[in-house]
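Translate structure to sequence.
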């Protein structure tokens, strides 16, 4: 589906789930290189930027919305956006709906003004600047949502729900790793874009390019802070679980220490229970004597444990 938006002398063509006929038509109208024409038809595995004579071709992958939800699903981790940046046109293609692009296109269609430093010098690069800034800023609420989840997990950990948080932390780790993978490649691509766009649009566009990089660095910095907080929470949770396990093992060991002598006494007197020459057992009250001896031994062992302050 093609949506075309005019802003001053700039044309923005947004294509969702492009068909061959749509790409053929756009390629013919805007003289798109054969290589780019082919790449626009299918998703690409990595982000990149290429400079051609009459346009810049840019591919970026952005995190899917499921990173910022509690559902545990198998949805693909990223959404690809392809940009074809000309002097007076922008073509964006994507293979599923991208909400920030929808929102920004609605702003332009509503006639809201996009300010440029000098309106007479406006070119497609300025519109691209606002589009990419919108895409990066749209990630911030999701990153804040992850941060709030980390705070919730922290409260759960320190309220005695360490075991319950193991799976929650594992799911969060998966999301953070995928999220970082989706955004990590942007830095190198944006640095290359800065060089290509200065050559294509001129040095005066350099400020906007640096601002784009700054928006990315801001988002990636929030992500790294969340990842650092996550690592600390996971280490804390593992430490508390380890302490619990150690306490359990300590209790089991002390119980074995207390009842080992009792078990030994029972075993000794039980080995020859039918032998009439066995001391104590041959007595009419031998059973109760052995039972009392076992009880006394267990009491003495418990007193010893208390004295040693093992419990």
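Result:
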């Amino acid at each position: 589906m093609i949506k075309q938006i005019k802003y001053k002398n700039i044309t923005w063509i947004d294509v969702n789930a492009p068909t061959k006929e749509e790409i053929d038509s756009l390629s013919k109208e805007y003289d798109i290189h054969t290589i780019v024409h082919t790449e626009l038809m299918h998703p690409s595995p990595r982000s990149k930027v290429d400079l051609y004579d009459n346009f810049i071709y840019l591919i970026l992958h952005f995190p899917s919305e499921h990173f910022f939800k509690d559902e545990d699903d198998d949805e693909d981790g990223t959404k690809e956006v392809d940009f074809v940046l000309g002097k007076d046109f922008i073509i964006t293609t994507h293979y599923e709906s991208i909400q920030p692009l929808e929102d920004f296109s609605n702003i332009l269609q509503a006639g809201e003004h996009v300010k440029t430093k000098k309106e007479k010098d406006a070119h497609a690069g300025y519109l691209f600047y606002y589009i990419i800034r919108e895409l990066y800023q749209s990630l911030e609420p999701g990153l804040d949502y992850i941060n709030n989840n980390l705070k919730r997990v922290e409260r759960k950990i320190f309220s005695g729900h360490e075991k319950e948080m193991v799976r929650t932390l594992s799911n969060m780790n998966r999301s953070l790793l995928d999220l970082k993978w989706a955004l990590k490649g942007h830095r190198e691509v944006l640095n290359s874009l800065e060089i290509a766009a200065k050559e294509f649009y001129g040095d005066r566009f350099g400020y906007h390019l640096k601002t784009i990089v700054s928006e990315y660095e801001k988002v990636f910095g929030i992500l790294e802070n969340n990842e650092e907080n996550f690592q600390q929470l996971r280490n804390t949770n593992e430490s508390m679980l380890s302490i619990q396990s150690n306490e359990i093992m300590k209790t089991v060991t002390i119980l074995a220490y207390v009842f080992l002598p009792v078990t030994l006494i029972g075993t000794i007197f039980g080995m020859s229970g039918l032998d009439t020459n066995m001391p104590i057992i041959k007595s009419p009250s031998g059973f109760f004597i052995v039972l009392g001896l076992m009880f006394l031994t267990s009491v003495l062992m418990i007193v010893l444990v208390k004295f040693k302050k093992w419990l």
